Each structure stands twice: as C-alpha cells, then as structure tokens.
C-alpha cells in the first residue's frame, strides 16, 4: 500500500510540474501568408509542444497505475469503467487517438531500419509502458488506457460466444497484421496500422467515407461480439498477450478460494475464462503425446512453407511502395508521362529525378521486401505451427481462472464472484447471473 501511495504522489507531482508549460504556445505555429492563401484543415493532429507530449506520457502512466490498482487491489469494475471513460474522452476525442500505443509499433520498427529516422521519447514510452505494465500486472492497458478498446467495451449489449475453432482461426489475423505492419514500416512504405485504424475517424470527426463505415461496422459488430478489433485484429495485442502470459501479478476472479459456483462462467464477453479440467480431458491427455510429436515435427515445415510463400509474394507486396509502383507504371506505360491528371507521375517529374534513378530505388526497395517477406512468412508459419501444437498441450486446472494472455483485466468477472475478499465468505448480495 505504501508503494501505491508513493506512486500516486509521484504521478501528482509530474502533473503539477507539467501543467504550467502545458499552456505554452505550439512549437510549430501555422505560417502566415499575405497572398490571401487560407490554411487548409488537416486530418491529423497538430504538432504538440515537448511539454505537452510528456504530459500525455504522464497521463498514460497515471492511467496504467490506477488501472492496475483498481483491478488487482481495489477489485472494482466500476472504477475501471469510469477510468476507461476518462481515457475515451482524453486519448480518444481530445487527443484525436494520437499518440497511440498501437501505432507506435511502426515508429519503433522504422527507427531500427532507417538511420535517418529518430523516434521521439514520447512515442517510445507509449510503446514501452503498456508492455512493462502487462509484464507485471496483466493487460491493464486494454482495461482502461486504450481508447480503441474502450470505445468497443462500452457498446457491448448482448455478447455471444463464438465457436472455439472460429476464435482460433480469427486469432491468427493479428499476427498476420503485425507481420505486415512491421514489413511495411521497415521498408519505409507505409504505416498501415494508422492508415486503417477503424476508430480514428470517429475521434477526429474527419475521415474517408470507407473508414467511417469500417469504424461503425466494428461498433455494430461489437454489440454482439465483444471487442472484435482487439481480439481479431489488433497487432499490439499480440505483444501485450506475450507479456501478460508471464505477468508477475494478474487479476483473479475470486479474492480467495474458488467455491466452484460457476457464476463467473457467463460474465466474460471475451471468452477469456479457463474452466477447471474435466476427468475425461485428464484421461484423454495421455493419448495426445502422438499428436504432440506430430505437430512438433511439422513445426519446421510450417516455418519453411511460410518462408516460401513470403518469397513468392514479395513482388506483389512491394507494389504498395510508391517508388516500386511508379517504376512499374512508367516502364509499362511510358505515355503516362504526358498525362497531366496523374498527380503521382507529375509530382515525380517535378522533383527532377530520372527514370533510371527511380528504377534503382525501386530495385533496392524490392530487395528489402524479398528479405522482409521471407521473415514475415516464416513468422506466420511459426505462429500457425505453435497454435496447433498448443491445442495438444494439456494444462491441469482446478479452478475457474482468467486466461493470462487473453484476459483484458476489465473486472467484469469479479462482480460475479460471491466470495468476500476480507472474510472469504459468501457476499450478502449475489449479482444476478446473465442468461445463457
């Protein structure tokens, strides 16, 4: 408790120190023109002053610390809910969904692959802090600090349970998305996580029509399928899941011994509660040794198949790069140089670069894609192989408990547990169980 108080005092001090310079003028004010030119409205947030960037980091740190305390110590679903609403208002609508821990993956990757790119300290901290907290306290970032997750969490009306096989198949998509995001960022092609963020258009009240439709579609789906983007698309969730599996402390359903009341079984809309092992499963696990050996032998084959597919698809994937796209276009259709309506070609010609230089740059980029696509393919093959292998690994469980990797630490299951945390006796009022 003393440690928590010290942490709260430290966060309060940071807020006071950063509050004064937070009102400072932007470092990059809009330029003034005397020719009657009007500055167009931008679809991305204005640059922030250094003090305001660190203020955002301080807010994130405070939210993560408070979410950890509410989930593990206070065990308050109501507190987590109100904290998530603050996150939605601040990091979502006020900060326009930027800076984002989910998208910061790309900044980190680009800083390693491009010596001319320097990642800001704020972006690096937004990437690292949720992972550090996940390693110690579970996915508390998903519980109350991620605006992408919060907006989905608040629209859940009547969640349905998806079949096990469907959850496993859809669960592969975030790994594929992560591999592609790293590939495109490492080659300097695009930040696809930010480009296809389904909710950033809602936060900024300005986005292409297709992205608005995509965001609304996710929210409508989220009324019946809990957090569809978080569970089946979020690439940052892959890293959080890895960290949370080794978390030192983690949210628990019951504050004491599980009394096998089963009230929690319908409380989680994300299918993140592991049930106690059945006797049939314990007996059947002895016959799974052959499957385990088979899947273990097939694992290198999955990796090799992924590398092969990646190598074969690198040319197609590289066409997303502007230099590769223009080089192929101008070689296949030389007459496009005379098309004044093709802005891409006209922009290239205005820079004074020759076609030979463009082709050489495209060749270098495609070479990077060849190597990167093989690594990405091998990674996806490894994930598929490990997913199959994990299905035949038996884990004996005696209680109902949250899966440390899949649990979002939202605290819903805690309200369904009738065991009092102080007396280890039944609570006087038992929450009403959801209908199946």
Task: Based on the model shown, name its key terms.
436 residues; mainly alpha; 2 domains; two-stranded antiparallel ribbon; 20 helices; 2 strands; disordered N terminus
Tell me what you see in this structure:
By secondary structure, this protein is mostly helical. It has two domains: 247 residues, no CATH class; 105 residues, no CATH class. The chain contains 20 helices and two strands. The protein has a two-stranded antiparallel ribbon. It is globular and about 75 Å long.
Structural class, from secondary structure content? mainly alpha
- Overall, the morphology is globular
Strand content: under 5%
| β-strand number | 2
- CA radius of gyration is 25 Å
Largest sheet: 2 strands, antiparallel
N-end to C-end Cα span: 39 Å
SSE pattern: HHHHHHHHHHHHHHEHHHHHEH
Strand ordering within the main sheet: 1-2
Provide the domain count: 2
Mean pLDDT: 84
Q: Can you tell me the residue ranges where pLDDT is under 50 for at least 5 consecutive residues?
A: 1-33, 39-44, 428-436
What is the percent of helical residues?
55-70%
Structure annotation, total helices: 20
What is the fold's blueprint, element by element?
Blueprint: H1 2-19, H2 50-74, H3 77-94, H4 104-113, H5 121-137, H6 140-144, H7 147-153, H8 164-170, H9 173-186, H10 192-195, H11 200-204, H12 209-222, H13 228-232, H14 236-244, E1 273-274, H15 279-284, H16 289-318, H17 322-332, H18 343-350, H19 355-390, E2 401-402, H20 412-416
Antiparallel strand pairs: 1-2
Helix pairs in contact: 1-2, 2-3, 2-5, 3-7, 4-5, 4-9, 5-14, 9-19, 16-19, 17-19
